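Hey, I'm writing a tutorial for new members on how sequence and structure tokens pair up, and I'd like a real worked example in the thread rather than a made-up one. If someone can provide the structure for the chain below, I'll link this post from the tutorial.
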Amino acid sequence: MPELPEVETARRLIAEEALGRRIVDVDDTDSFVCRPHSPGEIRAALTGRTLIAARRRGKAMWCETSDDGPDLGIHLGMGGRIVVTSPDGRVAWGGEPFRRDAQPAKAAWDRFTLTFADGGSLVLFDKRRLGRVRLNPGVDALGPDAATLTPAEFRDLITRGSVAVKARLLDQSKIAGVGNLLADEILWIAEVSPSARTGRLRPQDADRLYRALGAALDSALAARHPGGTCPRCGAEMRNGTVGGRSTWWCSREQAGREPTTVRHKKS
């Protein structure tokens, strides 16, 4: 799944580069990415309209369209990107960062395309084909966006029940937008064990987690890599499973009940 910062870069790109441009064609022929819509259905719904707003809640992103048209939902999948071409041919992208790849990009990896009257386009580029495009996506099941929570709202959500705090951070129905990597970053910054129980968090723990959430979002997952030693205190980094998800934590600063399937990693 994408992380909130990656989806936000894609949303901002659409808001800055793609709004108000009239759609003259839509390539929605990838029936897997565009399911449950049949080829041509999205094209018929959007041709002649413009995108008028780009919205996001957690990892969900959608665009409002003109003349009371349908919302266009775009999910980036595991490694998708939004690529927008301007009328003068300038290309900008948002979403998953580009990495060195032994394979040159293929036209087939452009899974969905809006063509604008000015000659530019908006493309969902997705090598893995795990992204999704649909009309009028539902977002009611999602909790509040992680980037908009107040301290009081976060404290209430993070201390409910008695589950592992990492599992709560990953529960999109409670807090929308936190993925696996971002959850590890938050817990590491806050020096809280990923297996700590939500109902036993102290007020100061919840406050540290809230500040850590803000710091992690602001830095968009700064260059800390799992494994080896903790870059802050030098203690051994450990790896295990919390709620079925691979998890990294500092053995000293995040000490607590050991998660299951613990693996040790030394530099």
